[in-house]
Amino acid sequence: MTTATTSYADTPYYDTFATADDDTLRMPLPTAEHTDRPADRHSTGLVLNPTRLWTGGLATAAVAALVGLVGTLVIRVLFEHAPVGASAAHAVNAGNAGLLCLFAAVAALAATGIAHLLMVSTPEPLSYLGWIIGLSTAAAVVLPLLSSVPTAAAVAIAVVNLVIGLAIGSLVVGTAMSARRPATR
After folding, report:
1. pTM
2. What is the residue extent of each domain of the chain?
3. Residue 66 burial (C-beta neighbours within 10 Å; 0-12, 13-18, 19+)
4. Distance (Å, rounded) from C-alpha 51 to C-alpha 55?
5. Are 171 and 56 in contact (CB under 8 A)?
6. DSSP symbols for 145-173
7. Which domain of life is it from (predicted)?
8. pLDDT exceeding 90 applies to what percent of the chain?
9. What ranges in the chain are assigned the alpha helix state H?
């Protein structure tokens, strides 16, 4: 192997790899003082407060469950007064409302868990969280439309799922932002 003919020892902007032997091609390494990034590029000076994150996640679960309950109650009232047919009116009953509330609460807690995981492990965690929640909401909106439920009931459930997803997304992202605090040194 050939060695580099340029001596990087004379260059003030680079350090060479100290343990390289004569058969190693010496490549320059930028020093910390001559880069535009700090030495630890993942350090933002912020620390996650998990208690604040998870209490916000529990509150989000309560809000999501209540959004599901109110949404199904509004659908039931509308279907009583609108000529949509008996099958559409029966598609949204008390049992389905309870399941929707339960799934909404579980989805909020899952979003909080994903937020916690992303905030301790990835750069730009809120960008990834937004995409994950947005795509999950899109799936929750499309799923009722693919089922054998009458069209009016499927559209109504899809709208409720959309509102639940928007509530979870905005509240979990807001909670995650407020759960970050400056690191004390």
Report:
1. 0.72
2. 48-179
3. middle
4. 6
5. yes
6. HHSSS-HHHHHHHHHHHHHHHHHHHHHHH
7. Bacteria
8. 48
9. 50-81, 86-91, 94-121, 125-146, 151-178
pLDDT confidence bin for 145, thresholds 50/70/90: very high
Q: Is the pLDDT of residue 72 over 70?
A: yes
83 neighbors 35 (Cβ within 8 angstroms): no
Given a contact cutoff of 8 angstroms between Cβ atoms, the answer to whether 92 and 79 are in contact is: yes
Instruction: Tell me the C-alpha distance between 10 and 127, whole Å.
Output: 43
| CA–CA separation, 174 and 135 (whole Å) | 18
Buried b (16+ CB within 10 A) or exposed e, 163-180: bbbebbbebbbebbeebb
Q: Give pLDDT tens digits for 80-114.
A: 777 766 666 666 776 788 899 999 999 999 999 99
Residue entry with tokens 């004569």: 22
Confidence category of residue 133, pLDDT binned at 50, 70, 90: very high
